[in-house]
Amino acid sequence: MWQSIENELAAADQDVDRGSLDAMQDFQLHWKAVKLRIAPLWHANPQAPWVIKSQILGRVRDDLSGRCCRLVPRQSAPPEI
């Protein structure tokens, strides 16, 4: 379980390093996978310090991502000729 979470986090980190719009979209996919995989571990011991800290950091990351995505212009389809 932890290995798959670590793999997703490593891929997400590489996406951040790439820095392109496509990379940020890939990051979102990796982040969602991490959250899905880690949620059962959070529920197993909800009062553990690592759980509380990772949930707080996850919420901050989600909040920052929402703000950044609103600043990035959406790509539109080219006009039809």
Task: Note down, in words, how this protein is organized.
With 81 residues, the protein is mainly alpha-helical. Helices cover 79% and strands 0% of the residues. The protein is built from three helices and no strands.
Helical residue percent?
Answer: over 70%
Q: Which ranges are low-confidence, i.e. pLDDT below 50, for 5 or more consecutive residues? A: 71-79
Relative strand content: under 5%
Assembly category:
single chain
Give the SSE string: HHH
Distance between the termini: 51 Å
Q: Rough shape?
A: globular
Q: Would you tell me the structural class of the helices and strands?
A: mainly alpha
Looking at this protein, list some descriptive labels:
single chain; 81 residues
How are the SSEs ordered, and which strands pair?
Elements: H1 2-18, H2 21-44, H3 49-71
Helix pairs in contact: 1-2
Question: How would you briefly describe this protein structure?
Answer:
With 81 residues, the protein is mainly alpha-helical. It is built from three helices and no strands.
